[in-house]
Predict the 3D structure of the following.
Amino acid sequence: MATIKSGIPGLDDLFGPDEFPKGRQILITGPPGSGKTVFGLQFLINGALLSAEPGVFISFDDLPRHIRADMVSFGWNIKQLEEEFNPPLITLVDGFSARVGLTTDEKYTIKANVDSLLLVLTEILEDTGATRVCIDSLSTLSTIIKDPAQVRKEILTLGAILGEQGCTTLLTAETSALGVEEYSSQGLIRLSYDELSTGEFRRAILVQKMRGFDHEFSWKEFRITSDGIKIFPDRTIGRGHFK
Ligand SMILES: Nc1ncnc2c1ncn2[C@@H]1O[C@H](COP(=O)(O)OP(=O)(O)OP(=O)(O)O)[C@@H](O)[C@H]1O
Ligand SMILES: [Mg+2]
C-alpha cells in the first residue's frame, strides 16, 4: 500500500504501517467546530513544510483571506507558502465569493459546481504538481447539486481523476449532511467532541473506514493547541461519549 506522512502528530499511528494512505479520497466528518478545516489545512501545510508536497485547498465555506488570517494563530504562514515558492507549496481556491455573490481578487476562483471545480483543479495540478488536495466542504458543494445520485457520481469522478494523479484528497463534511458521501469515499474519519461530567469538553477522532488498510477502530483523544491538531493514540475515549 502506498503511504505518506500525514503531518498531523499521532494520526499515522492509527494505521498499521504507521503511515497515512496515499492517493486515496478520504471523508472528514464532524459537527461545527470539531476541527475539520484545521485538519485539512494542517494536512496540506505540514505536507508542504515537512515533505515538500504541494497542496491545494478549495474553500467553499470561508473567504481565503479569513483562512490566511485564522491560520496565523497556529504559526502557519500560508501567504509565504503561496508566494515564496515556485511552484507554490499551497494554493488557496476561492469557492466562497461567487457562491454568495461577492467579487474577489483571488487568483483561483470557482463557481460552486463540480464542472468548474474539476476544471480549476486540473489547471492547478498541472501548474503546481500538487499531491494533496482538500475540499472544504463537500456539504456546501452538495447544496448546489441536490440529487444524491449525482453527488455520488461526481465524488467518484473527482476521486478517480485525483487518484489517477496520485493525489491524496480530504473532503470535509458536516455530520448532519452525511449520506451518499460516506459510501462513495475510500476512507471515513470522524471528528467529534463531548462534554465530561466536569463540564469540560474533550475532542476525539475515529478512523471509521479505510479501504485496504488495517487501522485503529476506537475513538482516540485529540487536542487543538497553538501548534494545531495533536492526536493521542494511547488515549481511548470510553463508551457513552462521542456518538
Ligand atoms: N489557535 C488555536 N488554538 C487552539 N484552538 C484553536 C485555535 N484556532 C482554532 N481553534 C479551535 O478550532 C476550532 C475551529 O475548528 P475548525 O474551524 O477546523 O472546525 P470545523 O469543524 O471546520 O467547523 P465548521 O463546521 O464550523 O466549519 C475553534 O472552534 C477552536 O476551538
Ligand atoms: Mg470548517
